[in-house]
Design goal:
The chain is mainly alpha-helical and about 190 residues long. It folds into two domains: about 1-80, Rna Polymerase Sigma Factor, Chain: A (Orthogonal Bundle); about 95-170, Arc Repressor Mutant, subunit A (Orthogonal Bundle). It has helices at about 5-30, 35-55, 60-80, 100-115, 115-125, 130-140, 145-160, 180-185. Mean pLDDT is about 80; it is low at about 170-185.
């Protein structure tokens, strides 16, 4: 039996969760407003269906974030991002460079191809902007272990993304551009 959620309860939950949920999704789609709105709307539609049948969870925002993450993964697994120049990506910053929707789509696609353990740690560090110490505390592991896991996850992501980078890039040594190779040849 499906129960009706009181409209005022839905309104209150919506007001409390919409901004942080939209921020979560928007960061992961490179600020593509239309896509972020569509994905947030899909998460909320699932929430209304699920909550009417099972009741509102104790932490509605956490529930919405988890559902949004699953929607994002499904979205990025379905798309085929355009090939980009390697210079458009950087992993050395404190964030993944996703200044354009195209770059965000490529990064999202790559993240969706990773094991959950790898994508979770990259998300925590780059998108949620948590420090190594915060991640270590949350997972009850050492900071050194977090650094190692981040390194391995970055390497896995680079391998996935290299498949979608323009062919002239990254052939000889990882990170080496065609210009560097030409200079060495002279």
């Amino acid at each position: 039996m499906i129960r009706t959620l009181p409209e005022d309860e839905v309104d209150q939950l919506y007001r409390e969760t919409i901004r942080p949920l939209y921020a979560y999704v928007s960061r992961r789609v490179g600020g593509d407003r239309s896509l972020a709105e569509d994905l947030v709307q899909e998460a909320w539609m699932r929430a209304l269906d699920d909550w009417a049948a099972k009741g509102v969870p104790n932490e509605p925002l956490a529930w919405l974030v988890r559902v949004s993450r699953n929607i994002l993964v499904s979205h990025f697994r379905r798309i085929r991002p355009q090939q980009l120049e390697p210079a458009d990506l950087t992993f050395e910053d404190q964030r993944l460079a996703s200044s354009t929707p195209e770059t965000a789509a490529l990064i999202g696609w790559g993240m969706a191809q990773l094991r959950r353990t790898h994508s979770d740690i990259l998300e925590a560090f780059y998108f949620d902007e948590k420090s190594v110490r915060e991640i270590a505390d949350e997972r009850s592991i050492s900071e050194r272990a977090v650094e190692g896991r981040l390194h391995r996850a970055r390497e896995k992501l680079k391998k996935k993304l290299n498949k979608r980078l323009k062919p002239a890039a990254f052939r000889a040594e990882e990170g080496e551009t065609q210009n560097v190779r030409q200079t060495r040849a002279q």
